[in-house]
Amino acid sequence: MSSQVEIILLGTGGGRFATITQKRRTAGIRIIGNGLNMHLDPGPGALVYSVSEGFDPQKLNAVFVSHSHPDHYVDAEVLIEAMTRGMTRKRGVLAASRSVLSGNDVCESSISKYHQQMPEERIEAMPNMKFKVGNFNVLVTEARHTDPDTVGFRFETLESGDFAYTSDTEYFEGIGKYYEGVRLLILCVMRPAGKPWKGHMTTNDAIKIIEETHPEQAVLTHFGMQMIFKGPAREAKLIEEKTGIPTIAAVDGMLIAFGETINGQRKARRTQQDLNKFF
Which option is the CATH number for 5-273: 2.40.50.140, 3.90.180.10, 3.40.50.720, 3.60.15.10? Predict the structure, then answer.
């Protein structure tokens, strides 16, 4: 089993209009390695782009959903069906926010009780809790978003240190403590500098978080239409100039190899023969 983790940005779009137009895909993130084959925030297109990029959804052993908004959960049920071999085997892990599993005053639950009963383990993810999946220790991080139960995730690997995903959040005092010491920080940066929107992150917010946490590498994703029109690569360059931290704007299909070094490649298509090395 390889100690390297592959993080595939199957989709880098977010928000209503990016979802509707598919100017950027909303397919979420696949994470493979160290006993884990996981789909994180499987929005619209997660199934289709998993298949088209060569990632068999039946190989999944975990589905994570950070909150109950369509650009993060729409394909979760069908990926659970794939993970459980057409709902014939109780298999895998579902880790999701309270809103996704049970609903709250703002959002209805977004995964049916029928689908929730089929994974071998069901985890209601709440800030500061820890659990293990594959060979990863997972810390659930706090987020502040229009779904009040939104969470992020920090993944501790056995050999290569930590990487983390903020999900949708606005900046708040104390957010940095969740990500101190991570080598790779993946930030959902919906809007460019100077275009704030409650519950979401702008380039300015990303700068503050990166300055507080000092990751080895920062990756921007989950772009709304204003960010797409402004140019995510330009915003990434601004962040790098302000913080001194290497920062890249993800593109659809990008693979990040996380190990002794952190390397991004533009395209990530893999055959099943490639993926079998992890299992």
Answer: 3.60.15.10
